[in-house]
Structures are given as structure tokens and as C-alpha cells.
Design brief:
Length: about 270
């Protein structure tokens, strides 16, 4: 009896947590399917209002929305590929190679992890101005091509891999580049998938630095472009939620396609033989 009550309470709590996580998505979709949703006074009147697709049609038919979407795709993909490549190289070097200053350099990288992004906002902006990269893809891509978190994650994962195959490859005359890309990288597929999803999501949803580094409409990313639906006097909730709903589609597709690899990467090393 006691176990049954505990089970019911546990499931009830989990259902409440799940409902709390799902409700914002439900609310976003509901507002996006209503014309002028801000005009409805109560939740029930909004719920019973006619369903329309006008907000989605307006968003998809807008030239600027397509431009924002394309910019986000370009920046997200390039930064993700860059992180997977450079973090793999750095993580392999820290895990397998010995060089002067290695402990100090790795501790410096760990120290960068605790620095809030807002601290580097002004210095990074001045640096982008000096380089002449404001309103260019360079400012949106280059500063994020490698991350301390990615280096740390790959280093820890590679350290847990056995060295037998690498040693055998060296005996057969294989070089370090061959070992890295033909032996180590395939073994790192689960953690690289997790890193790729993490980096892509971070850049896809990034607002602060793209807003800071761009002031031309042609270079705005999707989060920055959507923010302009928020005016000083009112908020265009219908179009804002429709744009947010469309922007969530790539994230959902990524999770559906790579959910197995994500779970493998998150649970890697959790079970000991």
C-alpha cells in the first residue's frame, strides 16, 4: 500500500513537471494559430477562437524572415562543424600528447568556462570593430569556432578510450593525423553528436552577440529578427509566435534524427563493465 501511494505521488509529480515543460510550446502554437491573439481577454475565449494559418503564411511569405532563417542556418552549421573539428583536435592533443605548458594551458581553458559571456561583450565588440567585421559573417562565426566546453568534453572522452588500437596503428606506421581522423574520430561519434547538437542549439538561439555585431537587416539572425516583432507600444504576438514555431522545427528534426546518438553520448561511461 505504501509503495502504491509513493508510486502515485511520483507519477503525479512527473506529470506536473511534464505539463509545465509542454505548456509553453502549447501556448506558442495556440497564439500562432489565432489572428490578433492579443485582442482576446480570457484564455477560454482564445481557446475557442477560429484557427487560422495567416500568421505562418505571412512569416513564410516575408523576404526578411527567409533571410533571417538562412543566416541562422549558415552560422549554425559552420560554427557546429568548426567546433566538432577543432575541439576534436584540441581534445586529442590534451588527452594523448605531451607538450610544454600543457597543465597550465588546460587550467586556463577550464578557467574560461566560469567567465560569463557578458564579461567579454565589450572587448569582443571592440575587437570586431578593429577587424572591420561588424555586419559580416566573420563576426558571427569566427569567435565561436572553438569552445572551452567542447575541448574539455572531447579531452575527457578521449582519455577514457583504450590506446591499444592507436598503438597498433603507430607500429604499422600510421601518423598522428591518420590516427586522429581514421581511428579516434569514429570512436568519438557519440560525444561529437552531443557536442554538435549543443553547439548548434546554442548558436541557433543566440541573441545577444548577433544583436551586438549586426545592425543591418541583411545580416540579422532569426532570434534578432523575431525581436523586431516587439514594438515600444505593442507586441505582434501572432507573427512572433508563428516565427518562433517555425524556428523550433530544425531543433525538433535534429532531436528526432539523432536522439539515439544523443542518449549514447550522455550515458557514455556511466556503466562500468
Amino acid at each position: 500500500m505504501k509503495q502504491t501511494i509513493q508510486s502515485v505521488l511520483l507519477h503525479g509529480i512527473l506529470l506536473l513537471i511534464a505539463a509545465g515543460m509542454i505548456f509553453p510550446m502549447f501556448w506558442m502554437i495556440l497564439l500562432s494559430l489565432r489572428e490578433h491573439p492579443e485582442s482576446y481577454e480570457t484564455f477560454f475565449s482564445l481557446l475557442s477562437a477560429p484557427t487560422v494559418l495567416k500568421n505562418y503564411a505571412d512569416a513564410l511569405g516575408s523576404d526578411t524572415f527567409g533571410m533571417y532563417f538562412l543566416n541562422s542556418v549558415i552560422v549554425g552549421l559552420v560554427v557546429t562543424v568548426g567546433n566538432m573539428l577543432f575541439c576534436l583536435m584540441c581534445g586529442y592533443a590534451f588527452a594523448r600528447r605531451d607538450f610544454i605548458g600543457k597543465p597550465l594551458l588546460f587550467m586556463t581553458i577550464l578557467g574560461v568556462l566560469i567567465i560569463p559571456p557578458q564579461v567579454i561583450m565589450i572587448p569582443l565588440y571592440r575587437l570586431m570593430v578593429q577587424f572591420g567585421w561588424i555586419n559580416t559573417y566573420w563576426a558571427l562565426i569566427v569567435p565561436w569556432m572553438v569552445t572551452p566546453f567542447g575541448i574539455f568534453l572531447l579531452r575527457q572522452y578521449i582519455q577514457g578510450l583504450p590506446t591499444d588500437i592507436e598503438d597498433a596503428a603507430r607500429i604499422d606506421g600510421a601518423g598522428e593525423w591518420y590516427i586522429l581522423f581514421r581511428i579516434v574520430m569514429p570512436l568519438c561519434k557519440p560525444v561529437l553528436t552531443v557536442l554538435g547538437i549543443y553547439i548548434f542549439l546554442g548558436n541557433w538561439n543566440s541573441f545577444l552577440f548577433p544583436f551586438l555585431f549586426t545592425n543591418e537587416e541583411s545580416m540579422r539572425t532569426l532570434p534578432v529578427g523575431l525581436s523586431f516583432y516587439i514594438g515600444k507600444q505593442s507586441i505582434d504576438w501572432g507573427h512572433l509566435m508563428a516565427g518562433a514555431g517555425i524556428s523550433a522545427i530544425p531543433v525538433l528534426v535534429l532531436f528526432i534524427v539523432f536522439h539515439k546518438q544523443i542518449i549514447q553520448g550522455l550515458t557514455a561511461g556511466a556503466l562500468k563493465e
